[in-house]
Amino acid sequence: MTSSLPSHRLVDMLRDSRRRTLALVAGLTPEQLIGPRLDIVNPLLWEIGHVAWFHEHFILRHREGRESFLIDADALYDSAAVAHDRRWHLPLPSLDGTLDYMARVERALIERLTSENASPEESYLYRLTCFHEDMHDEAFLYSRQTLSYPEPSLPDAVRPADANAGPWPGDVPVDGGSWLLGSAPDASFAFDNEKWAHPVIVRPFRIARAPVTNAEFAAFIEDGGYHQRRFWSDEGWGWRESADAGHPIYWRRGDRDRWMVRRFDRIEALPPNQPVMHVNWYEAEAWCRWAGRRLPTEAEWEAAAAGPGAAKTSFPWGEEAPTPRHVNLDGVGLGPIDVAACPAGDSVWGCRQMIGNVWEWTASSFAPFPGFSADIYKEYSEPWFGTRKVLRGGAWATRSRMVNSAYRNFFTPDRRDILAGFRTVAL
């Protein structure tokens, strides 16, 4: 499955992930690095140590049988064994001690790559552990948002030139037929929940050219959508009542009743043509009922993103690696951009921004594909089947090296701290 990669590429990836991790916790106080106990965040001091532990566990210790650089590392950082609530009460090393542990692991990972090309197994493990760090880096960004921490300083955080391109309304037709859902065995890398591509029948449908915008979602609020039971499922209404939700979590009313939004630690005017973000699956479902629409299944989403089944591509635009012309990824603008931006990233059907900007909720529950078997990171997918909804496409904070048209994300339907929006399908 995994191809053999040059060692220097793995080293570059490793160093790049680590630079991003350190930039995302830089400048935070000791109190901020621990933070309040919430179900949807980790103590950031614990989380950066866990990232280093993951590299060490799966490469240095699993593959080579080395001892850990840190006494009791498993008791501190094994997320499968350390209950979430306990992470605020562990005898964690200081920030300096944690950074020293991280640096020692990183040096050992680099020093062991002595040949020009890594083996396929090494190439898989280094990519797996770097992608795991990339996922946590995205979590660091939305955790800083959750906790109202200041915007991080990223050296490449520059908004794309066409960030204010405006709305992109309308639907496009997508042909039906037999579709290969998932990753093929010859993919250079695949997570276990993508294995393997299998045929599904997709009926013809019409899908929105772009995600639902802030302006479009605001119309639902102004029409009383949050307070009309008929738009909500039983579970969704139960969530809405328990959360006392009346609008997306970070929205606020400003002067002259205008909508504002909290962005990290600042209140700003709500950009009308950016995709609505930080809405959960229940909110997306309710908007769809109000608008006479529905969420796409993940098979429909992938068919709209990756082209006709016989010509399935890694990205909506083809096989070329993502660039800022195509997508808003890698956190370069520290936020979403207007839904009409990045026309070079359109799919063959005419859908825009199916990769990047915001994750897109689908109608599908997270379930194994036929013949699923867990990979070496056994806790990645299998424990969560049946309890989460599938999201597709990546967000502005997602790293471009790990996302493609087959990549599946998954969260519980009540989560609205994540960088998620949605795209709809005509009934």
Looking at this protein, list some descriptive labels.
single chain; 427 residues; alpha+beta; Four Helix Bundle (Hemerythrin (Met), subunit A); paralog of FGE (formylglycine-generating enzyme); 2 domains; three-stranded antiparallel sheet; 10 helices; 30% helix; 12% strand
Descriptive report:
The structure is a single chain. By secondary structure, the chain is α+β, with helices and mostly antiparallel strands. It folds into 2 domains: 7-146, Four Helix Bundle (Hemerythrin (Met), subunit A); 156-427, Alpha-Beta Complex (paralog of FGE (formylglycine-generating enzyme)), CATH 3.90.1580. Helices cover 30% and strands 12% of the residues. It has 10 helices and 13 strands. It has helices at 7-25, 30-34, 44-61, 73-77, 95-111, 120-146, 214-222, 234-243, 281-291, 298-306; strands at 171-174, 177-181, 198-202, 205-208, 251-253, 259-263, 266-269, 293-294, 359-365, 389-392, 408-411, 420-422, 425-426. The strands form 5 sheets. A 4-stranded mixed β-sheet has the order 11-10-9-12. Strand 6 and strand 7 form a beta hairpin. Helix 1 packs parallel to helix 6, helix 3 runs antiparallel to helix 6 (120-146) and helix 8 crosses helix 9 (281-291). The longest helix is centred in the N-terminal third of the chain and has 27 residues, at 120-146. The protein starts with 6 loop residues before the first helix and ends with a strand.
Order of helices and strands: HHHHHHEEEEHHEEEHEHEEEEE
Indicate the percent of residues in helices: 25-40%
SSE class: alpha+beta
- Separation of the first and last Cα atoms: 39 Å
CATH superfamily of the largest domain: paralog of FGE (formylglycine-generating enzyme)
The general outline is globular
CATH level 3 topology of the largest domain: paralog of FGE (formylglycine-generating enzyme)
Instruction: Give the rounded overall mean pLDDT.
Output: 95
The value of Rg in angstroms is 21 Å
The CATH class of the largest domain turns out to be: Alpha Beta
User: What is the percentage of strand-forming residues?
Assistant: 5-15%
Give the spatial strand order of the biggest sheet.
11-10-9-12
Total tally of structural domains: 2
Which CATH architecture of the largest domain would you pick?
Answer: Alpha-Beta Complex
The total count of strands amounts to 13
Major sheet summary line: 4 strands, mixed
Flag low-confidence runs. Answer: none
Helical element count?
Answer: 10
